[in-house]
Specification:
The complex is a heterodimer of chains A (about 90) and B (about 170). With about 90 residues, chain A is an alpha/beta fold. Chain A has helices at about 10-20, 35-45, 60-70; strands at about 1-5, 30-35, 50-55, 75-80. Chain A has one domain: Rossmann fold (3-Layer(aba) Sandwich). Chain A has a four-stranded parallel β-sheet, with helices on both faces. The model of chain A has no long low-confidence stretch (mean pLDDT about 90). In chain B, about 35% of the residues lie in helices and about 30% in strands. The chains are: A alpha/beta (about 90), B alpha+beta (about 170). The interface of A and B includes residues 11, 12 and 83 of A.
């Protein structure tokens, strides 16, 4: 499986990778991006099976990236990795 | 005995902070937990990463403080680097790492304190080096804790008592 992790925090991407490993996701290819715009480029280049994405990021945030993907009829599995919820996330 | 009021007293927040830090220690840092060494008078000249939790009933700053060397060691563990590699981590990435540590433990504190105040919201973490001076309206408490792996930190809770008094 190919996993794309999108987060502007370098350390948070490391934490997500470690959490995946601790959850038993070992031996999968992991690709990284630092914002939604880079994430779209990585989706086009690597065709990941799932995207794990931060919400707040510079240049293009997570929901904008998801809207771009769905607008382009890309139905890649997409999950947000966030520490708290706000009304706009619902 | 009277239960401490989280709107006026740091104790319940420090207890929640210690639990959340223990959780982080055993997961993201792959360390041994969080053993409380004892109370401390201040965070001295440590580097502290603070974040505010504000709700209808309370306003509280919590922090994890440590020496600059320990902050770098924590960053190294998050990046899965050994001690030599960790020396190459930029100051910005060390600050980012400590910020994420506090962000994660603050999420744990928020969920643990939700039964007291379900409206709690997290602010953004910020890093301070030096001593925090108290004022009459603030109550501050510090706990020294050992996470294992030679990592000792100071847990901080600062309660704004006037916020709670105005809410009452």
């Amino acid at each position: 499986m190919k996993i794309l992790i999108v987060d502007d925090s370098n350390v948070m991407r490391s934490i997500v990778k470690r959490t995946l490993r601790q959850a038993g996701f070992v031996g999968h290819e992991v690709v990284e991006a630092a914002n939604g715009s880079e994430g779209l480029e990585q989706v086009a280049e690597h065709t990941p099976d799932i995207v794990l994405c931060d919400w707040n990021m510079p240049e293009m945030n997570g929901i904008e990236m998801l809207q771009e993907l769905r607008g382009a009829a890309n139905d890649v599995k997409f999950g947000f990795v966030i520490s708290e919820g706000t009304a706009e996330m619902h | 005995m009277r239960a401490p009021d989280p709107g006026m007293e740091p104790g319940p927040w420090l207890e929640a902070l210690a639990e959340a830090t223990a959780e982080l220690s055993t997961t993201s840092l792959e360390l041994e937990g969080c053993t409380i060494i004892g109370p401390r008078q201040s965070d001295g000249d440590l580097v502290g990463c603070y974040i505010v939790l504000v709700g209808d009933k309370c306003s509280v700053q919590i922090a994890v403080a440590a020496s600059p060397e320990t902050c770098r060691t924590i960053a190294g563990r998050l990046f899965e680097m050994d001690a030599v590699e960790a020396q190459e981590i930029s100051e910005g990435d060390v600050a980012d790492a400590i910020g994420e540590v506090v962000n994660i433990v603050a999420g744990g504190v928020k969920s643990r304190m939700a039964p007291y105040d379900a409206s709690l919201q997290l602010g953004l973490p910020f890093v301070i080096e030096g001593v925090i001076e108290s004022t009459k309206r603030l109550r501050m408490e510090y706990l020294e804790a050992d996470l294992g792996g030679g990592i000792q930190v100071v847990l901080v809770a600062i309660v704004d008592t006037r916020h709670a008094a105005n809410a009452a």
